[in-house]
């Protein structure tokens, strides 16, 4: 028995070491710690902004419009943002985008706390943050490949998802309490201050230890080259198709959840915070499970797309708070597992000099679809309630998974093995 327990303890330690192995890299550790603080503030702002828009407008369509404006620039300029990321120093680029994001959060805090905020101001600042996102998102995601080696891409991306969703767990809960007890503007102010942590982490990095990707020449850096590259690789093409449908229809949580909290469950901002936190609990669990993966396959991506579709369909028919919280946990697990696998497949299956453009293409379909999906889901929920938004997400994701099956059936090998073969060549 003693030997058995010792063996189990050894395996547990080995498993934990495998899950958190990227933290052994000092540069990644600095990035991870700074991001862990900043992301709490980011989620506080998201919840606060959604509730502020609902309070100012009493309109689900207005919620969709505010969310759409934040991601419209990615739809319009996302490909060119990837070109910039491939040409510029990624670490310095992230420092600039994070600093600008802090300024925008501070302006929003000042307008709310000063009692002068109007709906159009929220729209303008959301659009400004969207312009920053065009470069910030692909830069942060592609920067992972400079901090860790190829063997740790899956792990580092999963840990990023873990800390992101830990913030989703903590941030909304804090924001809900602050909004109900103090003022919505305080959440924006805290977010503005939180950016100092990630800026400090980036400043502490050893730039000489970064694995810098080759900078493309002007001739090879065209914005559409990433699209041609993905189209020439069937597995990457199928991956982006699934991401496009799931993002367009299935991930409009910031439109659906406030309505679920207020109209279906009869609650206030604190209930919206609980629902978002429950989504974060599930997402954190899913991200930790993904961090232990050694490889990524197209079949695992397809499997999680089906699970995501099924959970959404069940969530459409949950009229009680306890049931809704449970469904949000399950939805968070399915959502982050799908997203982490998709993002990792794209990174591992892409040549280093093309990563910025391919990740920007992912951002375009992942975030850029929101200007269409957000208002559409908002209108649908205004007509038939929050459950209709979940049901649409489930049906659309299931149809996309069904359509992607024939293509993925012809490509069964692990993407990590494909990357290893490419490196040997």
TrEMBL record:
What's its membrane topology? Multi-pass membrane protein
Q: Does the keyword Membrane apply?
A: yes
Q: Where in the cell is it found?
A: Cell membrane
Q: Which SUPFAM superfamilies does the record match to this protein?
A: MFS general substrate transporter
Gene3D superfamilies listed in its UniProt record? MFS general substrate transporter like domains
Would the keyword Acetylation turn up in this protein's UniProt record? no
Pfam families with a match to the protein in the record: MFS_3
* Keyword list, A-Z: Cell membrane, Membrane, Transmembrane, Transmembrane helix, Transport
Predominant location of this chain? membrane
| Chain ranges passing through the membrane | 30-48, 60-81, 93-113, 173-202, 238-259, 271-289, 301-321, 327-346, 358-380, 386-408
Protein name as catalogued: MFS transporter
């Amino acid at each position: 028995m003693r030997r058995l327990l010792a063996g189990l303890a050894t395996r547990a330690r080995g498993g934990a070491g495998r899950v958190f192995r990227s933290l052994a890299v000092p540069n990644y550790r600095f990035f991870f710690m700074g991001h862990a603080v900043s992301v709490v503030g980011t989620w506080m702002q998201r919840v606060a902004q959604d509730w502020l828009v609902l309070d100012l407008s009493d309109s689900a369509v207005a919620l969709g419009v505010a969310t759409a404006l934040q991601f419209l620039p990615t739809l319009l300029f996302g490909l060119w943002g990837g070109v910039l990321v491939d040409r510029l120093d990624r670490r310095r680029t992230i420092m600039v985008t994070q600093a600008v994001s802090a300024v925008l959060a501070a302006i929003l805090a000042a307008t709310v706390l000063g009692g002068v905020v109007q709906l159009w101001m929220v729209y303008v600042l959301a659009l400004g943050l969207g312009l920053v996102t065009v470069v910030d998102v692909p830069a942060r995601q592609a920067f992972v490949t400079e901090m860790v080696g190829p063997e740790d891409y899956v792990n580092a991306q999963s840990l990023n998802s873990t800390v992101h969703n830990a913030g989703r767990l903590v941030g909304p809960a804090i924001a809900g309490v602050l909004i109900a007890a103090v003022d919505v503007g305080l959440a924006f102010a805290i977010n503005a201050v939180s950016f100092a942590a990630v800026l400090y982490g980036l400043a502490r990095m050893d730039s000489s230890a970064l694995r810098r990707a080759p900078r493309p020449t002007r001739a090879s850096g065209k914005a559409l080259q990433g699209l041609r590259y993905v189209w020439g690789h069937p597995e990457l093409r199928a991956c982006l198709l699934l991401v496009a449908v799931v993002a367009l229809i299935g991930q409009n949580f910031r439109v659906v959840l406030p309505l679920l909290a207020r109209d279906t469950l009869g609650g206030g901002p604190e209930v919206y915070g609980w629902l978002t936190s429950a989504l974060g609990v599930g997402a954190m669990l899913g991200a930790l499970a993904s961090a232990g993966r050694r490889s990524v396959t197209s079949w695992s991506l397809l499997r999680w797309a089906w699970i995501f579709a099924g959970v959404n369909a069940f969530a459409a028919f949950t009229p009680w708070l306890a049931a809704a919280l449970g469904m949000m946990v399950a939805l968070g697990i399915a959502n982050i597992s799908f997203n982490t696998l998709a993002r990792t497949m794209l990174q591992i299956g892409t040549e280093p000099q093309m990563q910025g453009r391919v990740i920007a293409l992912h951002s375009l379909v992942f975030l850029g679809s929101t200007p269409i999906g957000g208002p559409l889901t908002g209108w649908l929920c205004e007509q038939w309630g929050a459950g209709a938004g979940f049901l649409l997400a489930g049906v659309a994701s299931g149809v996309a998974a069904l359509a992607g099956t024939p293509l993925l059936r012809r490509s069964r090998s692990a993407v990590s093995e494909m990357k290893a073969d490419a490196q040997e060549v």
